[in-house]
Amino acid sequence: EEEEEEEEAAEPGAFGTAVGFVQDAVANPTVRNIGVLGLTVLAGSFALSCYRVYMVYQSSCSKRSRQVNKNMVVVDRLRDFFPANRDSLSKGHIQGLAGKTGFTPEEIFRKYMRFKLNEEVFNTNFVADVLALKGACGLNGETMTSVLLETGERMVNKYGILMRDITGMSPSGVERKVDGASKFAKLMYLADLDEFIPRMEGEAVQLRLKELFGATDEDYASLRITALGTDDKVDISVLEAMITQPKPKPGDDEGPPGGGGGGTPVAA
User: Average pLDDT over the chain, rounded to whole?
Assistant: First the structure.
């Protein structure tokens, strides 16, 4: 029992010695200054790390990556509805998607329609899908005008102005111009669709699209889509309408066979 009492007495004594040592160290100016310096270095390192993380987060590359990820969320979510479940798409689904991505219903429509124009066949299912999405997003004629013109400007920036004469172009140049003409024809078809945009707004959009693409009335007549198909693997083709006959030179008695009017109106 005496040994146990001695051990118990020794423990408080050792603790008191340690506390006293710390108090003496804190009272020592040199030790205190070193401690303050150490805390300052740690705080500075932490602040620098936070700054670096913030700068990486705010970098253009990081912003682009986040934007792409949100665009993929829009595409993946809406793709589940089309074409088989388009009738079940509701405003509630669009509101939920808007809350998840931060996009407005108009932005969601723009992004998904551009995706469909670039990746999917332009057929009856395409049109039915975008009409269902338009209704779920609650978009009006003014908004559809903005959507079509903004999409047209993007296409012109990507493919350049419309050129039906593709003779002498490289294969890549021909492909680029054919793609651009195809996008022009599709946008003009949507602008001519009363269910997509009211007629007055649609006619104004068509005039503006012709200006953007540098297209004439003759170009539109040759590239105009007159009917849509139902095949999900066959897109519209404007290649035949892109093949134009050279204009006769001054002094020629006869023009080339078939005239210079280009191909027939496009049917999918």
Answer: 79
Tokens 């404007």 map to which residue? 238
DSSP state of 161: S
Query: Can you tell me whether residue 246 is helix, strand or coil?
Result: coil
Each residue of 73-90: pLDDT tens digit?
999 999 999 989 999 999
- 198 or 242: which carries more pLDDT confidence? 198
pLDDT digits (tens, 9 = 90+) for 242-264: 655 444 555 555 444 444 444 44
Query: pTM for this structure?
Result: 0.68
Determine contact, residues 230/245, Cβ cutoff 8 Å: no
DSSP the chain: -HHHHHHHHHHHHHHHHHHHHHHHHHHSHHHHHHHHHHHHHHHHHHHHHHHHHHHHHHSHHHHHHHHHHHHHHHHHHHHTTTTTTGGG--HHHHHHHHHHH---HHHHHHHHHHHHHHHS--SHHHHHHHHHHHHHHT--HHHHHHHHHHHHHHHHHHH-S-----TT--HHHHHHHHHHHHHHHHHHHHHT-TTTS-HHHHHHHHHHHHHHHT--HHHHHHH-EEE----TT-----HHHH--PPPPPTT-SSPPTT-SS-SPPEE-
CB 119 within 8 A of CB 161: no
> Residue 215 is encoded by which pair of tokens?
């297209």
Return all residues near 115 (Cβ < 8 A) that are at least 6 apart: 75
